[in-house]
Amino acid sequence: MEKKAKEIHEIQILIAEDEEDIAEITRHFLEDAGYSVDVAYNGREALEKIDSSTDLVLLDVMLPEIDGYEVCRQLRSKSETEEIPVIFLTAKSEDDDQIQGLNLGGDDYIVKPSTMEVILARVQSALRRAHVSEVKTIELLGLTLYPKQYKALINGENLHLTFTEFQLINCLVRHPSQIFTRDELLEMVWHDDALTVTNRTIDVHMKNLRDKLGDFSGYIETIWGIGYRFNGQESLSG
Ligand code: CA
Fold first, then answer.
1. What does the alpha-carbon distance between residue 57 and residue 46 come to, in Å, rounded to a whole number?
2. Separation of CA 59 and ligand 1 centre (Å)
3. Is 62 in a helix, a strand, or coil?
4. Residues 6 or more apart in contact with residue 186 via CB below 8 angstroms
5. How far, in Å, from the CA of 25 to the mean position of ligand 1?
6. How many angstroms is it from 125 CA to the middle of ligand 1?
7. Beta strands 180-181 and 227-230: pairing type?
8. What is the pLDDT of residues 149-161, one digit of tens each?
């Protein structure tokens, strides 16, 4: 299951960190969470490795050769890299440093030492704000999702999903086997409009989505009393 999630994410994270132990622990943790991770041990190497395929940078401030602030400044000055989310890693906790990082275009900062759980939560949050995880095309089990066009194909055939149906399947597929409560789906799909939507509305959209999935409706599993999840395993065996 973990391997499948890795194929789905395809999200590229660059860690710029000169302390090898920290870099390696962080790399392994993020890889286990399904991300594709590369490490640069100084600022020059980071600038060489970051390109338009990079989805997020974890950027240590105190780096050899070129420091993190300057790396961020250079990323923001090129159209190819100006929109990549940058999270600063700083061992210093002074407010001035954090403000400087954010002024230079950093999206967030994490004060070291930090737990891996905090780093992962910040990474997920920054990717969500940048809509990175939602815009990458996914192919899995004959199902292809094109988020930019809100289009879903099964074995090449267009399912003609509505915007809401697409958002629902996109959300479930990108977190395979994770169970979503109806409240979580409201939050992820309807965002600020969540208050105007009821749980019953979700069930109606899910039914319509399943009808369109036809023989593949088993992909979407109802977890009684809780919510829904995408279950690729079930569909394969069944
Ligand atoms: Ca450092």
1. 9
2. 9
3. coil
4. 194, 197, 199, 202
5. 15
6. 23
7. antiparallel
8. 788 999 889 999 9
Residue 125 DSSP code: H
Q: Say which DSSP state 188 is in.
A: I
Q: How far is the CA of 19 from the centre of ligand 1 (A)?
A: 6
Give me ligand 1 centre to Cα 92, in Å: 10
Alpha carbon of 62 to ligand 1 centroid (Å):
4
* pTM score, whole prediction: 0.60
* Ligand 1 centroid, distance to 82 Cα (angstroms): 23
| Ligand 1 centroid from CA 11, angstroms | 24
pLDDT in tens, 169-225: 998 988 877 899 998 898 888 876 767 778 888 899 999 999 999 989 999 999 998
Residues 52-110: tens digit of each pLDDT: 889 999 999 999 999 999 999 999 999 999 989 999 998 866 666 767 777 778 888 89
Residue 81 Cα, ligand 1 centroid: separation in angstroms?
A: 22
Average pLDDT over residues 17-27: 95
CA–CA separation, 128 and 130 (whole Å)? 5
